[in-house]
# Entry
Amino acid sequence: MTTGLRLRENKEDRNRTADTIVSGRERPPARIELRYEREDNHPMANFTLEDVRQRTYKARDAWWTVLLVDPLASRLVKFTANRTRVTPNQLTVGALILGLAAGGCFAVAGWPWLLAGALLYHLSFTLDCMDGKIARLKGTGSVFGAWLDYIFDRVRVLACAIALMAGQYAATHNVAYVWTAVAVVFLDMLRYMDALEIYKVRSQMRATLNAAREEARDLELAARRANGEVLDADEVGEDLRSAEGALREDPEADMENRVVGDDPAAKELQQGFEARFPWYARIRNVLMAGRIRPHLISGIEFQMGVFIVAPVAAAIVPGAVIPVVALSALGMLTFELIIIYKFWLASRDYSRSMAKLNGKIEEYRLQLPAARRETADAAVGSGG
# Structure
């Protein structure tokens, strides 16, 4: 318990440091007061709505979440954190139950049930957002909780896709609904598998680039000192600094866990994409001012299009499910292709930077005397 408290305090220190750098003033620490319930003398927190926003709102998020979920979820999180002992995992289970209930409504296929299913799915997604917010607010997140949330999300999508399309098939006997269910499940899995893989590869590329840059800097320092120059480590590597921007963070591709209180308002994109589309930065900045990520149709918007917009549209206009699903899928695939294109550009920047760094490493290694070269190689090897 003591270790957890210390980590939490360190996190708050980092938050205040980031705010000081950006705004020139220190953000006051979140007001967390403990009070005791009369019945069982159980300590209860007194989080404010500002605490919830600073600690749980992601610095960049889907527009559906920012505009249609967070305003309600933040208030529910405040009440839940202060007045109940509900855990994030319990909220995850609750989100699945509501999602399955939405699927039951979809299966009936009548217009009142379609509307009820859409409402239940939105509430299910709200609970799904709340579990992570409670975990970030109280510092009670866990690896198992993250796994449970991911698995239950996939189960909910699978169940609701089958139920919605099965209900429509039973009502119309149109086999196209069967293939639509398959397409929805496939696209949902493709989106999340692609996001995980791109995140993993970008992390590996960034780590490799950083390691090569450090090796080049160490060898340059050793080579120049071997030639009699008196240098500080900060004075070397000027010609290598261009490599630092080769693989910057990508708000659309990287999985973001930073919250508002941690974010220093950095607006970085990889150099290749920004150079080709300078107008994109202006659009991005406008959206990010409201915490909305430029990836306007992500997996979240795709789900909402399928399980909220499509049922509501079908309740008004019979047969609207497939056209709405098709439009949602087209939008998501378009933005996924943009992410893949940006990733390709980043990989080219990475390859060029690695080639430059490897050339510098070899150049500095050859400048060292043989004995010093072996010593430097040993030092670099032990550091890696």
